[in-house]
Amino acid sequence: MNQRIGYARVSTDDQHLDLQRDALQQAGCSLVYEETASGKNAQRPELSHCLKALRPDDTLVVWRLDRLGRSLPDLVRIIEELQGRGIHFESLTEKIDTGTAGGKLQFHVFAALAEFERSLIRERTQAGLSAARARGRNGGRPAALSDKQIRTIKSLLRDPTTCVADVARDYGVSRTTIYKHCGVIKPRISKDENFETV
């Protein structure tokens, strides 16, 4: 027998599931999975249980689209996975039902919008990198030390009494950064050396 299974989610403990629960039960859901989790949180165990419980020709029902997906691409991904398993999807507020021809059309529009969004993000990223390269900057994290700082540090370290740890602290970087950028050879400690604890 085909089942209508509901999924309800609120973001905080201060919110209540009553509205969603009532709407899902009135829509004929024999089982409703409920959880409190932020929409930004990828870890939603009740949603995972819900998706595992669904069988071909079952219908996953939500009160509103944003209860299911963390973003439009995430929503499309979940629904595409359901479709691949022969499972229908229904959102009560938006009146979308992928078990109907109209609902399938709406979903294809969402999928196209999600792909458009991904393309825009890629284009903006490439444009930003190109503009940065044109200004003489490469992508990635900014350098921890400027060329001028590196020259100054090298000059300081020519004095054998200068401590690398002190220089690193003064410039707000780690000793590893000093070793990496300033050509300093990291001291090696022999395993055979014995140290006395004062």
How would you characterize the overall build of this protein?
The protein has 198 residues and is an alpha/beta fold. The protein folds into two domains: 111 residues, Resolvase, N-terminal catalytic domain (Rossmann fold, 3-Layer(aba) Sandwich); 35 residues. Helix content is 46%, strand content 12%. The protein has seven helices and five strands, in the order βαβαβαββαααα. It has a five-stranded mixed beta sheet with strand order 2-1-3-4-5, with helices on both faces. The termini are far apart.
* H and E string: EHEHEHEEHHHH
CATH C-level of the largest domain: Alpha Beta
Q: Could you say what the CATH architecture of the largest domain is?
A: 3-Layer(aba) Sandwich
The parts where pLDDT drops under 50 for at least 5 residues are 189-198
Integer count of domains: 2
Biggest beta-sheet profile: 5 strands, mixed
Q: What would you give as the CATH superfamily of the largest domain?
A: Resolvase, N-terminal catalytic domain
Individual helix count: 7
Mean pLDDT: 82
CATH topology of the largest domain: Rossmann fold
Q: Tell me the strand order in the biggest sheet.
A: 2-1-3-4-5
The rounded Rg comes to: 29 Å
How far apart are the first and last residues' alpha carbons, in Å?
77 Å
Strand content: 5-15%
- Kindly state the percentage of residues in helix: 40-55%
Based on secondary structure, the structural category is alpha/beta
Overall shape: it is elongated
Task: Work out the number of β strands.
Answer: 5
Keywords: DNA integration, DNA recombination, DNA-binding
Pfam family, one: Resolvase
Organism: Castellaniella denitrificans
Protein name: Recombinase family protein
